[in-house]
Amino acid sequence: MSLQQPAIFCNMVFDWPARHWNAKHLSEVLRGKQIRFRMGMKNTNTVPQFETTCSYVEATLEEFLNWNGDQSRGSGPFRNYDHSQFWAYADYKYFVSLFENKTDVFRDVIWSDFGFPGRNGRESTLWIGSLGAHTPCHLDSYGCNLVFQVQGRKRWHLFPPEDTPFLYPTRIPYEESSVFSKISVVNPDLKRFPQFRKAQRHTVTLNPGQVLFVPRHWWHYVESIDPITVSINSWIELEEDHQARVEEAITRMLVCALKTAEDPDNTKAWLNPTEIEETSHEINCHYLNEAVSALFDHYRTSKKVDMEALGRNGEHTKKEGLNVHNHMEVEQPHSQNLTTGTVKQEAASPFGPDLVPVMPSSEEPSSERGGIFESDGNALDGEHFGKSHCTERQRVMYKSKNAIVEQIASNSTVAPSQTFISTDDLLDCLVNPQVTRIVAQLLIQGRTL
Q1: 6 vs 215: CA distance, rounded Å
Q2: Which of 57, 132, 165, 434 could disulfide-pair with 403, CB 3.0 to 4.6 Å?
Q3: Alpha helix (H) ranges present in 147-240?
Q4: Does the global pTM surpass 0.85?
């Protein structure tokens, strides 16, 4: 079975030992271990809270639970953060680093149940947050995503790949494999980002014991709507990742070159805290060459794709040659996102009681309903799930093809004081995902002719 839209798996993890990994249990397993928490403000500002604008605290899980439980600053590492104004998020915590010598816990996560033999906690990350903790809206350049909700609930706002022009993508702050949106999707500034009105939001509340499948290149904004949330995820590698790494290497080289030239002593302003590697031009050139070499090595040994097909790159280009108008069309979802041989299914449709599709939502952003800190308590109701509306999807896809031209037209009406072009404005064009895809294809074709 191949899934091309987000879906919720139910009754798949009832026998996983990790089902009992609540924050209290983890605080005992990781007793005394210092963990980095990202601290953000509980507000509904129209500007996203990127990681470069957050502060950070080193604390144990026990200290986090004390701060989150008594809601007083006390004398611990969270003493400077009023619980009523701040949230805390231990995000992107890789098991191999977090648990170190406690590798036995890897077996508590059994991704092999989803059709990936041998995959367990070793290839997973842990997320622990307080009420309001969230990740800005972004898409992942690599793979697809499986997310297991252990404790508390999270609300997911998802947007399909064809909505990319409506999400105003940016690579500032820069993080390999993450394309951010300039928009706060729960409180959008529609005067500044008018095209966002055309985006088709899919909203779902993920409950404990459920697993969410996020297909390749689906945008997502994730917020904790309970006092404590614990999640485990794993990014699943895909065939398309080989070219995506070339595109990411191109992006890294351009972003680092221009931003370091602008201000060589202030990388913290544009480089995400998760990026710890060197950003020198020499290192980035080496990284690009390694990505291209790895791509060709992969296809030399692959029986599925020959070099001629690679040069044409038929997945993204319907006609031969590099026609800019063809390439600016939005990438379509790939059909081989997730194979789940363990789930019983009907021939006509994979969906049923244990596999529920996430459908387009008609509801307003949560901040417009009264703030992200008001939970609705509804997870799998009829408002979010139902039959697919193909005609509506086709209409949105048709409109997205003209989105770039419409963005240019809408931007031309801004006041003269806003027409100054910054380095970031230039980079938004140079490293737009659609542009780097063209550049990667040119590099590949130049070496296959």
Answers
A1: 6
A2: 165
A3: none
A4: no
